[in-house]
Write a structure and sequence with these properties.
This protein is mainly beta and 634 residues long. The chain contains 9 helices and 33 strands. It has one domain (15-246, 298-626): 6 Propeller (Neuraminidase). The structure holds MU-OXO-diiron (FEO) and calcium ion (CA) (3 copies).
């Protein structure tokens, strides 16, 4: 989900930033032309697609129609849809009579991030596991029968708000592959909903108990009801799932121009003009009635899917922003790095490095590992980049600049990053580590608001209508990547768009096919062979095709040559790609099918995936397998 505003007004005010910008513009152009970064550029004909590549599938093609399309020889099974019961005794989905109580026991709306957590815990089982799925938000036009903008805004009931809140958050559901068919186990004791409406979540780290986290309902500032705007995420080596609270500003109404938090709200893009109208019935979503509630969202939340009784935990040491993701990796010395993007135009890329090493023998020993460590923000220079520490008392992060403690630094991590001179990026989405190489891939989805005089080494187009992917290369120590390093190299992996259109300025390493070029990269994942899979969000706005999933090799002669594997139904976004450990199943989230102008519950632009006249389009997770049982992509 996206809005097109910018809340970073830091305007590169320091002299060093100005100098870096002047230098980097020139160097960016020089770097773009340099030999080696980009080799062949152009389009291949379909006959030569994949020739010599390990990705041997025939491309799916790209479409703008009512259903999905996948590469020939692959099967797509709809595994679980919005409203499907999560328990044997949960009510069936009735779109004409939705309720909060029913929704709390059903799969939520607008599924996004997907993690496959094998069962039993710690195994690499690829046929049975827990599907952990984010539910980012609800869309009133496609949720409510009889929807019309005016009547919705006028007549919205408390129960409707509660149903929307119940449909948002996260689901954990056991799935099993029986004879080649993935099925949901509704009797599983692991099945669980975590919602915005009712789930108690503990707060840990520097902001726990901070006065700015205290509310009437929770004076202690340590217990929050719910998580919201759950976009992408990540998993940890100890078997937990991290869910990222992204566009929290859509949930708070009121007058954002006044009060002691007004400046902080502004920097977080919280302007009181929420898409949801929950603040009408629930004071905590009204900025003026409960000004600290917004500080309790925008965090990374850790969930233990293997313990259904566990409280999720907001890990505030990782900072607060429009969190896209939280992907972890074990550094050479056993410490954990968590990579994150702040998805808004002109926002930053972050990483958190734990103080202590991960105990790979005892998962429970890592229970609070994410509470102690150092949060860093990225500054990109020409071919190298710095990770700048966001530590209270260091540099400008002092009382003179309004920070009383580390709690303030993490609550206002955007402002702290501004003061350190971080590089404003073209909407950082997923930041994912290639398990085969340790290189870190940053998806910059697009930024049409970047002006020509705002380009820099790492954001070379203004406007940037298509996006790009940066590859960060940490130094190696004893053959392993040092993810705690404060200086790394970087280069462009791909600068996307149509290579046949000179106005796009796209650059790939080799020839992409007419259906293989990308726009708007968002979620990333890697298959067991270290090949990158790239899901798009917004492709239809910029190229006229529905969002799609692409794959590319990351090294060798086919490095960065993207190929289209799956095309989503119209109005939808394809998100959350996740492989089973054996690479033979790919789970995909199809989010907001039919989300187009004028498309409503009663007259949607598609009724995917049921195609029944009494069913609205339903977001769903699909399981993709190869008909011959082989590895995806092969
Ligand atoms: Fe929810 Fe940044 O995508
Ligand atoms: Ca996303
Ligand atoms: Ca990912
Ligand atoms: Ca997105």
């Amino acid at each position: 989900m996206d809005d097109d505003t910018v809340s970073n007004e830091s305007k590169a005010t320091t002299l060093s930033q100005l100098m870096a910008l002047r230098l980097s513009r020139r160097d960016a152009l020089r770097g773009m032309a340099a030999a080696g970064v980009y080799g062949l550029v152009g389009c291949a004909t379909p006959a030569t697609q994949g020739s010599g590549s390990s990705l041997t599938f025939t491309e799916s093609g790209r479409f703008m129609d009512e259903t999905h399309h996948v590469a020939p020889g692959y099967k797509v099974n709809t595994l679980i849809r919005w409203g499907d019961p999560l328990h044997a005794d949960a009510p069936a989905f009735n779109p004409q009579a939705q309720s909060a109580a029913a929704q709390e026991r059903q799969f939520g709306a607008n599924n996004d991030y997907v993690a496959f957590m094998p069962l039993p815990r710690g195994s690499a089982n690829s046929t049975r596991g827990l599907l952990c799925v984010n539910h980012e938000y609800t869309l009133a036009p496609l949720m409510w029968p009889g929807y019309a903008p005016e009547s919705y805004a006028k007549n919205l009931t408390r129960e409707q708000c509660e149903t929307e809140m119940a449909a948002t958050g996260h689901s954990i559901v056991e799935v099993e592959n029986r004879g080649g068919q993935w099925l949901v186990n509704r009797a599983s004791p692991y099945n669980r909903r975590i919602s915005t409406r009712g789930t108690v979540i503990r707060v840990a780290g520097p902001a726990a108990g901070h006065p700015r986290m205290s509310t009437k309902a929770d004076v202690s500032g340590t217990r929050v009801i719910g998580t919201l705007a759950n976009c992408a995420g990540g998993t940890t080596p100890w078997g937990t799932v991290l869910t990222a609270e992204e566009n929290i500003h859509y949930s708070f109404t009121g007058d954002a121009s006044t009060g002691r938090e007004a400046a902080a709200w502004k920097r977080m893009g919280i302007d009181g003009r929420a898409r949801s109208l929950w603040g009408r019935h629930f004071d905590r979503f009204n900025l003026n009635k409960e000004p600290n509630e917004a500080n309790r969202f925008g965090w990374i939340v850790e969930i233990d899917p293997y313990d259904p009784r566990s409280l999720p935990v907001k890990r505030t040491a990782l900072g607060r922003c429009n969190q896209e993701c939280a992907n972890t990796v074990i550094s050479y010395d056993g410490r954990i790095a968590v990579y994150k993007g702040d998805d808004r135009r002109m926002e930053y890329v972050y990483k958190f490095v734990t103080r202590d090493a991960c105990n790979t023998d005892q998962p429970e020993a890592n229970r609070d590992l994410l509470d102690s460590g150092t949060l860093y923000v990225a500054r990109f220079e020409t071919s190298k980049m710095q990770w700048l520490p966001l530590v209270f008392g260091q540099g400008p992060l002092t009382k003179a600049n309004g920070f009383e403690n580390q709690g303030d630094v993490v609550i206002d991590s955007r402002r702290a990053a501004d003061l350190l001179g971080a590089t404003p990026m073209d909407r950082p989405e997923d930041v994912e580590v290639n398990p085969a190489t340790g290189r870190v891939y940053v998806a910059l989805t697009f930024n049409e608001n970047r002006k020509p005089d705002q380009i820099d080494a790492a954001n070379p187009r203004g406007p940037n209508k298509h996006g790009h992917i940066i590859e960060i290369i940490p130094p190696m120590i004893n053959g392993k990547s040092d993810h705690a390093a404060t200086e790394c190299k970087w280069e462009f992996f791909i600068v996307v768009g149509d290579p046949k259109n000179p106005e796009h300025g796209a650059r790939y390493h080799g020839p992409v096919s007419p259906t293989g070029w990308i726009t708007a990269p968002d979620n990333l994942t890697f298959d067991p062979k270290g090949r990158i899979w790239i899901a798009t969000d917004g492709q239809e706005d910029w190229s006229g095709f529905a969002d799609s999933l692409y794959a590319a090799e990351t090294s060798g002669p086919h490095r960065g040559v993207t190929r289209c594997f799956f095309s989503s139904p119209r109005g939808s976004e394809v998100t959350g790609p996740a492989f089973t450990p054996d690479g033979k199943t790919l789970f995909l989230s199809v989010q907001h099918p039919g989300d187009e102008k004028g498309s409503t519950f009663d007259k949607p632009s598609t009724r995917w995936p049921d195609f029944k006249p009494d069913m609205p389009p339903r977001p769903a997770v699909v399981a993709i397998t190869k008909a011959d049982g082989g590895e995806i992509g092969s």
